[in-house]
Design goal:
- The chain has helices at 27-43, 64-72, 88-97, 101-118, 136-143, 172-177; strands at residues 5-6, 15-20, 48-53, 81-84, 149-151, 154-156, 192-195, 204-205, 209-211, 222-228, 231-237.
- 45% of the residues are buried.
- By secondary structure, it is of the alpha/beta class.
Length: 249
């Protein structure tokens, strides 16, 4: 059973949000976490549920192809809708597969080698051969990702927002890559921002943001934030795919 605690914002009654942090090719942990979400939703039915992935599905980890195949196939949690956001790694992957030479170099440097290998591609092979190895449905999935999603008093983005800029005027690159001054800002962003991008040992809960990238690709758990009314809780899957209890911090 999820242990719920007071949250910094609210979700409308009858609605529940499950938001998963950076996945980075950790397909087995993702499967385990999706199963936990399905079990929770079955045990605690709600009128309306949404599953949100905050981006960085690809790179660094062992199974980018598997992660994209799962998500491109549709929502894995019965009874929930699914929203998928774009992260900086998906953006770089798309640019690299689109033929941008500088982006291809950046992609390899940032963790694209394991992504290519998950598709059976030698990262040292000619770059113009890479796109043919990635299924069209994976490319379509990547091109259809959103930059932001709003639910109640929350805004979900991959990386962060620029302080003092209205949410509807945020620059795309900031939403995908922002760290400072966002992480240390105490200002009201216009909503509590739920984000990944910057790995943390445990979820970070502040009055203006919640960080949920707990470094699955670096040996940490894959974390799902659960929001309902004025409460929050967490579901997690560690590298051995076992549930992990995370205290409210």
């Amino acid at each position: 059973m999820i242990e719920l605690s007071p949250a910094p914002a609210t979700i409308p009654a009858g609605r529940r949000v499950y938001a998963i942090g950076d996945i980075h090719g950790c397909a087995e942990q993702l499967d385990a976490l999706h199963a936990q979400i399905a079990d929770d939703l079955a045990a605690r039915p709600v009128a309306s549920a949404v599953l949100i992935h905050v981006g960085d599905y690809v790179d660094r980890g062992p199974d980018t192809a598997g992660v994209l195949a799962r998500l491109a196939a549709g929502c894995p949690v019965p009874g929930a809708e699914m929203i998928n956001l774009i992260g900086n790694h998906e953006n770089t992957m798309l640019e690299a597969l689109g033929g941008e030479r500088a982006a291809a170099t950046d992609w390899l440097f940032a963790g694209g080698r394991p992504s290519l290998e998950s598709y059976g591609v030698d990262p040292n092979s000619p770059r113009d051969t890479w796109p043919a190895a990635v299924p069209p449905e994976h490319i379509a999935f990547l091109k259809g990702l959103k930059t932001m999603h709003r639910e109640g008093g929350y805004a979900f983005v991959h990386a962060g927002v620029r302080p003092h800029v209205p949410l509807d005027q945020q620059a795309r690159d900031d939403l995908l890559r922002m760290r400072q001054p966002f992480l240390y800002s105490e200002v009201d962003f216009g909503a509590v921002v739920v984000h990944g991008h910057t790995p943390v040992k445990h979820p970070v809960i502040r009055h203006n943001r919640i960080a949920i990238d707990t470094g699955a690709v670096f040996g940490g758990p894959l974390t799902c934030l659960v929001l309902e009314t004025d409460q929050l809780g967490f579901l997690t899957a560690d590298p051995m795919h076992e549930p992990v209890s995370i205290a409210h911090r």
